[in-house]
Specification:
Structural class: alpha/beta
Shape: globular
Number of helices: 12
Radius of gyration: 18 Å
CATH architecture: 3-Layer(aba) Sandwich
CATH superfamily: P-loop containing nucleotide triphosphate hydrolases
CATH class: Alpha Beta
């Protein structure tokens, strides 16, 4: 069953356009697009990248002696579980989302018991159960590809591709000047050095895994995405055997058009002009330091 399960996992450093890409794929008739950030990581993720990136964004690790019920509770999925269990405190409380988390858990357990417990099967069950019990989900009847987004999860592309033979990873990269400006607008922003380290490490893994798996790991620049979404995302759709549709042109949630991506992401207006204007908000000193810290990747991505 894992061989036939198709997953497109989107990855992007913070404020690089991952949420925007996720929302642009939302209305595709052949895709089950997760409603929020997927955040499949667990507290058992512990490796050389754990101090740089939050474990909720990583590919999960499950203890050998756990049960399917325990596995489900370990999956962090903060945005989805908060919206389902305590909608009054969710930043998505305005979005109509009819999903009972206990029903999803019960369906998850059924799927794992049918497939057998493994990391790949656990992740498959997590996505399938969500769409099986989401009551007000708008369906086309053509859906066969599941789409998730978890920031920086592309650093685990080797694990994703091994666990799920039908999976692909899509990395979104945005120029580091605009990206850093938007992260500075967060309530608790990362410092420039911390942010640029994370940005560079993500791009390194994107390029490295694409070289190793050119048919299953993809890279799209945010600048190309906002200039022409169909041209940027079309080859990714075709790699999955999906059509290139007009739904790719604008962001949506559960098929409803969004006038702005907030609160799904901090990129409020995904346009070329807005992206350039954002970069211009930096001081000369910040621009110069970012150029030094990101230099190994600027020419490769056309940001020189």
């Amino acid at each position: 069953m894992s061989e036939s399960f198709q997953l497109l996992m989107i990855s992007a450093m913070y404020e690089n356009g991952g949420n925007t890409t996720h929302r642009m794929l939302d209305g595709h008739p052949q895709m089950f697009v997760y409603p929020f950030e997927s955040q499949p990581g667990t507290k058992f993720v512990n490796d050389h990248l754990s101090s740089l990136y939050p474990v909720k964004y990583r590919w999960p690790v499950f203890p050998l002696d756990a049960t399917p019920e325990q596995d489900y509770e370990l999956i962090i999925d903060e945005e989805g579980k908060v919206r389902s269990k305590t909608p009054q405190v969710s930043k998505f409380r305005h979005a109509e989302f009819d999903l009972d988390d206990q029903e999803r858990k019960a369906r998850y357990v059924e799927i794992v018991r049918e497939l057998g417990r493994s990391r790949g099967h656990n992740v498959q069950a997590f996505f399938r159960a969500t769409f099986d019990v989401w009551k007000n989900l708008r369906r086309s009847g053509e859906e066969r590809i599941h789409v998730g987004y978890s920031p920086i999860i592309g650093v685990d592309a080797d694990k994703i591709l091994t666990d799920l033979p039908g999976a692909h990873v899509l990395n979104i990269v945005r120029n580091p000047w605009s990206a850093y400006v938007d992260t500075k607008k967060r309530a608790v922003p990362l410092g420039l050095a911390h942010y640029l380290t994370g940005w560079c490490v993500h791009q390194y893994h994107a390029l490295m895994f694409q070289a190793l798996h050119p048919d299953r790991v993809h890279i799209v620049r945010f600048e190309d995405l906002v200039a022409d979404p169909k041209a940027a995302l079309g080859p990714v759709c075709e790699s999955l055997g999906a059509r290139i549709t007009d739904t790719l042109i604008a962001p949506s949630w559960n098929g409803e058009a969004l006038t702005e991506v907030v609160p799904w992401g901090t990129v409020r207006t995904p346009t070329t002009n807005a992206n350039r204007a954002t970069a211009a908000e930096l001081s000369d000193e910040e621009r110069a330091e970012i150029r030094v810290r990101a230099r190994p990747f600027l020419e490769r991505f056309g940001y020189e």
